[in-house]
Design brief:
Number of strands: 9
Radius of gyration: 22 Å
Largest sheet: 5 strands, parallel
Structural class: alpha/beta
Helix content: 25-40%
Number of helices: 16
Strand content: 5-15%
Strand order of the largest sheet: 6-5-7-8-9
Length: 399
């Protein structure tokens, strides 16, 4: 009841790159969006600005459909707040007039929490929200949302940055930083390949599928950000003992699944959907800068399913990749681990990704419910064991 999904559809179409609000476009947009009246319509028709913010829809979809969902709040241990904040965040930055039209939805969302006795009971300690895009901090720090930032959050997150950047990067206010959990978001894959059955069927050592030049060719800063891709691919191309079909632009499939290692180079930001796509394609990802680890959940034991090769130091970069490729036993084990754990990264099929986030929050709120082991070996089941309590009062009161 907080959202008008036809209006959200119209706003989403207007935020897509290159779309102008002229009469012809508006007529076409209204025709398309006339049939979008529910959240389910948005998901089934994939009415997203891009795949990046579709995490919000997959998170909310999982909560709505989940077999453990209860409609009786007195029986709930965790409350999912169905935030769809990508459109107001994008429009605030790129289309101020459209942002003004989103204000009633922000107000409705905040008022719904303000009126909730269950939110008041814990001040949001057992509530969680999802944010699928960058720089959401203005919503709380400029007062557009007063209650939602008191919740735990799964946030599209690219590192803490400098203290001065806190208000832009962080949705939660500083006074909530030690009381609530911030989980970095895992990207929805924009498409993966059918995995090879084993390392013996893979035909290449290394691959990287991605542009080496920014689409904004006149943007010097943008192209500078891609220097690690160019440097890394140049180094890989010069190594006569490594095989690679593609390092740069090329067909994702089957090249990604045919390689033992998939390079995870930075782009505009440290992280990318490429990480999930690589894992879902049955290939071991290789992190290439330390900053990339700040952009992924730390409840995953990345050593079990990935490698690190420092692209900023050519000597160490080559040594790390050589060491990985010459240890056939370890590379087979990590490939097996990737296959066994890839469901963790698959937002679109089932509930595993959602369940992992819910469990990690549950283990903070209710430590006595922590499990000792999991079917997924890459999960740190003792995650948050020594963490400071993340709630103001007794979050177990609802229990």
């Amino acid at each position: 009841s907080v959202y008008n999904f036809t209006d959200l559809c119209i706003g989403t179409q207007l935020m897509k790159p290159g779309v102008k609000a002229d009469q012809a476009n508006m007529t076409a947009i209204h025709q398309v969006c006339a049939t979008i009246t529910t959240f389910e319509d948005m998901v089934s028709e994939k009415v997203f600005i891009s795949f990046i913010e579709s995490t919000e829809f997959q998170f909310v979809r999982s909560a709505l459909d989940h077999p453990m969902r209860t409609k009786d709040p007195s029986k709930a241990k965790i409350f999912v707040v169905p935030t769809l904040l990508s459109l107001p965040i994008f429009s605030h930055q790129y289309n101020p007039a459209l942002f003004q039209k989103q204000l009633p939805y922000l107000q409705n969302l905040d008022e719904a929490l303000e009126k909730s006795e269950w939110f008041e009971h814990s001040d949001g300690a057992d509530h969680i929200v999802i944010i699928g895009v960058f720089l959401p901090g203005f919503l709380s720090h400029e007062g557009y949302l007063k209650h939602v930032p008191s919740c735990n959050v799964v946030q599209w997150f690219e590192g803490a940055g400098t203290p001065a950047q806190y208000p832009q990067r962080f949705f939660q206010k500083k006074e909530m930083k030690e009381k609530r959990v911030l989980f970095p978001n895992m990207y929805v894959s924009s498409g993966q390949c059918t995995p090879s059955s084993s390392t013996s069927t893979k035909t290449q050592n290394i691959t990287f599928i991605g542009s080496l030049e920014h689409k904004r060719k006149r943007c010097g800063e943008c192209n500078f950000r891609l220097r690690h891709r160019r440097d890394g691919c140049l180094t890989i191309a010069r190594r006569t003992n490594w095989t690679t079909a593609v390092c740069g632009n090329g067909d994702k499939c089957p090249n990604l699944s045919n390689a033992l290692l998939g390079m995870h180079f930075e782009g505009d930001t440290p992280s990318a959907s490429r990480l999930s796509e690589t894992i879902l394609s049955g290939t071991i990802p290789v992190f290439t800068t330390k900053e990339q680890y700040d952009s992924v959940p730390d409840f995953i034991d990345w050593d079990k399913i990935s490698y690190f090769a420092d692209v900023k130091n050519r000597t160490r970069f080559v040594e790390s990749l050589d060491l990985a490729l010459t240890n056939e036993t370890e590379i087979a084990l990590k490939t097996e681990n990737v296959m066994k754990n890839k469901a963790i990264f698959d937002w679109e099929n089932g509930y595993v990704t959602f369940d992992v986030y819910m469990y990690m929050l549950q283990s903070r709120l209710y430590p006595d419910t922590r499990a000792k082991s999991s079917h997924f070996s890459a999960l740190k089941m003792d995650y948050g064991h020594d963490a400071k309590e993340k709630q103001d009062g007794d979050a177990g009161k609802n229990e």
